[in-house]
Write a structure and sequence with these properties.
This protein has 387 residues and is α/β, with parallel strands linked by helices. The chain contains eleven helices and 19 strands. The strands form five sheets. Strands 6-5-4-1-15-16 form a six-stranded mixed β-sheet. It has a six-stranded mixed β-sheet with strand order 7-8-9-12-14-13, covered by helices on one side. The longest helix has 23 residues.
Amino acid sequence: MRLLHTSDWHLGRSFHRVNMLDAQAGFLAHLVETVRAREVDAVLVSGDVYDRAVPPLAAVELFDEALHRLAEAGVPTVMISGNHDSARRLGVGAGLIGRAGIHLRTDPAACGTPVVLADAHGDVALYGLPYLEPALVRERFGVEKAGHEPVLAAAMDRVRADLAARPEGTRSVVLAHAFVTGGEASDSERDITVGGVASVPAGVFDGVDYVALGHLHGSQTLTDRVRYSGSPLPYSFSEANHRKSMWLVDLGADGKVTAERVDCPVPRPLARIRGRLEDLLTDPGLARHQEAWVEATLTDPVRPAEPMARLTARFPHALALVFDPERAPEEHGVSYARRLAGRSDRQVAEDFVAHVRGAAPDAHERRVLQEAFDAVRADATVREVTP
């Protein structure tokens, strides 16, 4: 059986100030074309379909269009809710939609109830484990302490119990949305830490043939049978080195897994550049990034004037500025109190400006600071004498 594993669409999310709906629509068209061209038997979507619990109307319309196109392709789809989704909203109409071959798995109580498909070698049971918020499902699963590992372990116990009751040779697939130990995170995933612990060991999923993971945005292979597809589009500059793709998984008659990465369309490459502004504007080696979405880290000791306007003159798609000025090593071993000893409030404020900007305030700025302190003192005096 041939499976196409994807996740983390985050429909409705933007990339900095760039609306990503067109790029998301392009990805979904690519997904349907891949389903047809590569003769896929089932599509697996491992959560975070939307970017937030109440998505914008345009994202809902795009999702609706995607459901119709998948249904028209005649290929079953199994889809779970992620930590960004509202499970209840995503699951509305699941029974009716299931008749069209789109199987929404958003209810934790149904973890042990699979979608059963068949090929020439027999049945394949596909179990959808939606994102399980430990505090919300702990009692339902009979878990004493809220935590990702015990909750997922309890869900997997239900999966293994159901699988054990099925005919010998039934192959199995689990969709889950979780942070599994060994996975590499990026800046664009929402923290799911509970009690200081975010990850679960891959061994939680022992006993099934393939685990289609969602949550982490980089495509990753934890074991031959446990993989993240990653997000099809970038949602932070920490993903600049990601290769955005889906997994095309062939599940053999004996449950053996072979997998191939299918690249996703790239709306625009990402680039992270670093240096002094004048160097970034003149370095010929950076010409290859002029059409990329750019994050620039400026190392100028003094913050330059109008840096973004000057940067976009060369990099018209620059989206983010980070300031990391080159500084002389600070004096170590001197306490904060000693550094402030004998300095007035105004001098402390001037030191702060110099530290942040890399240059001391000029005469006009010092005058503004002094006037501000004078006004605060005058107001405090009035308060003291007013009955």
